[in-house]
Here is the input.
Amino acid sequence: RPRRELAPGAVHLPDWLDCTEQRRLLAACREWSPGMRHQRLPNGGVMSVRMVCLGWHWAPYRYTKVLDDGSAVLPFPNWLGDLGRRAVTAAGFAPDYRPDIALVNFYDADAKMGLHQDKDERALDPVVSFSLGDTAVFRFGNTENRGRPWTDVELRSGDLVVFGGESRLAYHGITKVLPGTADPDLGLTGRLNITLRASGMD
Ligand code: MD3
Ligand code: FE
Here is the structure.
């Protein structure tokens, strides 16, 4: 199986999830989807992506155990931790990975995610990313600032990327979604990305 190193610590395994695993993950996302919200940012902006969290809720820019309306965050299922351990192991990282956060992002044809760093987790364990549905252009930058150098990589349905080591604090984002690129057999219009993280919190 191809294993592309985007940068030191950033490992891309195209088409890592087989068709059955993509369907199972999509079915789970559909169960979580009633909780999907456009996140409001402290600067007054609203994210174009719709998001639902498992385990811990990302209330920009910190993690909490309760949603903005006071209700409990959805549980992080054990099977998702198992999938995360298989993923980091396949990418060549230590198998002792214990993720306790999943962020599920839904992109319609117009959604984007600006360049940012993921630094709200106390632990620097790898971040695991799974993509489903339409292809997206993922921009992978540097650890210094939002500017160049960056590389643009297409992420397709079934792709796994693991970001650890030197890449864990790199700037990254989604510049566009390519509508209509998903396999019609999957039955998803748009794109889902599921990231797994270790909070480092109790
Ligand atoms: C590199 N999500 O949820 S996944 C995010 O496709 C996020 O929804 C994008 O960025 C998406 O924070 C990109 C790829 C990704 C995820 C986390 C990373 C790359 C990363 C953390 C550190 C470095
Ligand atoms: Fe991110």
